Structures are given as C-alpha cells and as structure tokens.
UniProtKB/TrEMBL annotation:
CDD domains in alphabetical order: HP
Protein name: Histidine phosphatase superfamily (Branch 1)
Superkingdom in the source lineage: Bacteria
InterPro entries, alphabetized: His_Pase_superF_clade-1, His_PPase_superfam
SUPFAM superfamilies from the UniProt entry: Phosphoglycerate mutase-like
Length: 181
C-alpha cells in the first residue's frame, strides 16, 4: 500500500474486508454448530499471531475504525476480530455464513442472491471520517471479492446505496505491515 492509499484510509469512507487469520488444516464438520468451536476449523497459533499483528498495524498507522467490527459467526472469524480489536468491539453478522456458502455447492440462483446481498452491504458508506472493518472469509476465484490470503484485506470504496462499490486495492498482511515502516 502506498502513502496515497494510506492518506485515503486516514480520511475514512472505506470498507476493509479482511479474511480471518490462518486456520487449522482440515474441514468444518458436517455437524457444524456455531455455538461449539470444536465442530469448526479454528485459528492456528500463526493465525492468532496474524490477528494480533493486524490490529497492532492498523492502530500504528492511525487508520480510523468505526466500531463495532463486523464478523462472520465462525469461531475463527470472531477470534480474529477479538484478538485484533478487543472482545467488546465485535458484532457478529450472520451474513458471513452466506459468504462461506459461496465456496460450497450451491445453485446459480442462490449464488446470485448472496452476491446481490454482498453488493448491497458493500455500498454502505461508513460514518464520516472512519472505515468499517469486516472480518469473514475468502471467495472462490472469480466470485465476489475473489481469493483473499489469510489476514489479507480488500480495500473497498462504497459509492452509496444502489450505486455499487469500487475495489481500490487488495493487500496481504505483509503489504499492510510494509506501510508502517
């Protein structure tokens, strides 16, 4: 990320859509239950470090954040948000389940319904002078915001309800960290 992008973020008006930190290898269980983290893939030790570091870097860059941080109901996303921004600053958004489902075998009409709802969410301009952070999941290649690495962030400029949004940049965690040098 270059200094002009950092300047834009410091003025607010963007959505930082981040994928959760690195998760353990394997799959979520067929009996996945959002109340029980043991039925899901969870953050690895590296993923926990990534989440803490992500919050530290955004604070050190003095990027103004609008609270609460919105997060998918999966334990790995919630824990990422809590480690990065503090337990009290996190709000679960059930829409994260729909984003997760884009990577599953769903009908074209269901996929389009989810992508339309995503577009609508990404058109919402954050409160004046702040940026909204959403922590959820990656997308299949060519769908939605596309593939996002662990703790990667897509910088989105919402254009207002019904006016769409613009993807400004896609950054890895190391790209974001590079700004703080």
């Amino acid at each position: 990320m270059n200094s002009s992008l950092l300047d834009l973020l410091k003025n607010g008006g963007y959505i930082l859509y981040a994928r959760h930190g690195e998760a353990t290898v394997g799959e979520d269980q067929p009996n996945l239950n959002f109340q029980y983290c043991f039925t899901q893939r969870n953050l690895s030790e590296e993923g926990k470090r990534q989440a803490i570091y992500y919050g530290e870097v955004l604070r050190s860059l003095r990027i103004p954040i609008s609270y609460p941080i919105l997060t998918s109901p999966f334990c790995r996303a919630i824990e990422t948000a809590q480690l990065a921004f503090g337990r009290a600053n996190v709000q679960i958004d059930p829409f994260g389940i729909a984003i997760y489902n884009l990577s599953r075998n769903i009908s074209a009409s269901e996929q389009e319904r989810i992508l339309e709802a995503l577009r609508s969410k990404l058109e919402i301009i954050p409160p004046q002078g702040t940026n909204q952070v959403i922590i959820a999941h990656s997308f299949p290649t060519g769908i939605g915001l596309g593939q996002i690495p662990d703790m990667g962030t897509v910088i989105i400029k919402p254009l207002g309800q019904g006016n769409g949004f613009e993807i400004i940049s896609k950054l890895s965690l190391s790209d974001i960290a590079y700004l703080s040098r």
